[in-house]
Amino acid sequence: MRIIIITGASSGMGREFARQLDGYLEHIDEFWLIARRTDRLHELAKELKKDCRIFQCDLSQRSSMVELIQELETKKPKVKMLINCAGYGKTGKFEKLNYQDVTGMIDVNCRALSALTYSVLSYMCSNSRIINLASVAAFMPQPEFSVYAASKSYVLSFSRALRKEIDDRGIWVTTICPGPVNTEFFDVADKKNKESWYKSKFMVRCEDVVNRALYDSLKKRDISIYGIPMKCMYVLSKVFPHRILTKIIHKLNMYNSDENV
Ligand SMILES: NC(=O)c1ccc[n+]([C@@H]2O[C@H](COP(=O)([O-])OP(=O)(O)OC[C@H]3O[C@@H](n4cnc5c(N)ncnc54)[C@H](OP(=O)(O)O)[C@@H]3O)[C@@H](O)[C@H]2O)c1
After folding, report:
1. At what angle do helices 113-121 and 146-166 cross, to 10 degrees?
2. Which of 14, 32, 63, 81 is deepest in the core (most CB within 10 A)?
3. In tens digits, what is the pLDDT along the chain, a chain of 261 residues?
4. Cβ within 8 Å of residue 207, ≥6 positions away
């Protein structure tokens, strides 16, 4: 049995990966879809042509993947694609974040992504793919998004190193680094979901980011960055000292803050 595993499939980019892959991978037998909101996963499963298995996992909890790992051990599928999409960020000053979110972002974005990749790797064979969702936030430290940006730097660094370790097995890791994408991400990141200059200028469609990511993964590319503005951010983060960039981000945050309105 050949499968594709997608975390964060209940919404946004995870769901879109399932929709786009459903159309054109004949040799895949099942999607294994992972998230907390199983009602959403069932809705998606109805919509897809391929068979789906649904796993309710709260990836912030260490024990959450037990059932999934047992299924892997029992069914011994060939995992052709692992797409680690589950993740979230909370904006705000570090001291003002709540404790669960500080640890939760690291648990979901870093620990669960690494743990699942570790558990799945032995079921992957030649010409398989891993797609990990980082962010443009991975390129530099971000005041008032500090834990999230650091967690995505981890994803980028881990994925690039892993890619080198396993490319001789024909398993290709691609890291996706989007700027703002039109999903539910910002409803979670900031309950007020304020309209910032950054979002209004650079927000892109989820469908386009995922389409580009699949193309880059197919081409065995190391990194996928959608759009010229985010490619410029990448170059900027390589050229300018991070000390200066964090100062600029901090100033822009202050400008955008409620306190200054
Ligand atoms: N949207 C953006 O602007 C943007 C930009 C750069 C990078 N990213 C990254 O892209 C990825 C996908 O985000 P998105 O934009 O598609 O946001 P989204 O629509 O909010 O989707 C996030 C997904 O993660 C899942 N998730 C969150 N916490 C979880 C937990 N504790 N256990 C299991 N699943 C959990 C959610 O499922 P449940 O709530 O049902 O559990 C949901 O399916 C994330 O890693 C995000 O950091 C997003």
Report:
1. 20
2. 14
3. 999 999 999 999 999 999 999 977 888 999 999 999 999 999 999 999 999 999 999 999 999 999 999 999 999 999 999 999 999 999 999 999 999 999 999 999 999 999 999 999 999 999 999 999 999 999 999 999 999 999 999 999 999 999 999 999 999 999 999 999 999 999 999 876 666 777 778 999 999 999 999 999 999 999 999 999 999 999 999 999 999 999 988 888 776 665 443
4. 16, 20
The response to whether residue 140 sits with its C-beta less than 6 Å from ligand 1 reads no
Contact between 234 and 177 under an 8 Å Cβ cutoff? The reply is yes
Domains and CATH numbers, the chain: 2-260 (3.40.50.720)
**Structure tokens given for 110:** 């870093």
Residue 181 is given by DSSP the state B
User: Which residues are known catalytic residues?
Assistant: 148
Residue in the block written with tokens 């097995």 = 169
Query: Which structure tokens are listed for 89?
Result: 């960020």
Task: Quote the ligand 1 centre to 55 CA distance (angstroms).
Answer: 16
| CB neighbour class for 221 (10 Å; exposed up to 12, middle 13-18, buried from 19) | middle
Q: Is the CB of 108 under 6 A from ligand 1?
A: yes
- Indicate the SS3 state at residue 3: strand
- Cα 26 to chain centroid distance, Å, stands at 25
Environment class of 206 (CB within 10 Å of its CB; exposed 0-12, middle 13-18, buried 19+)? buried
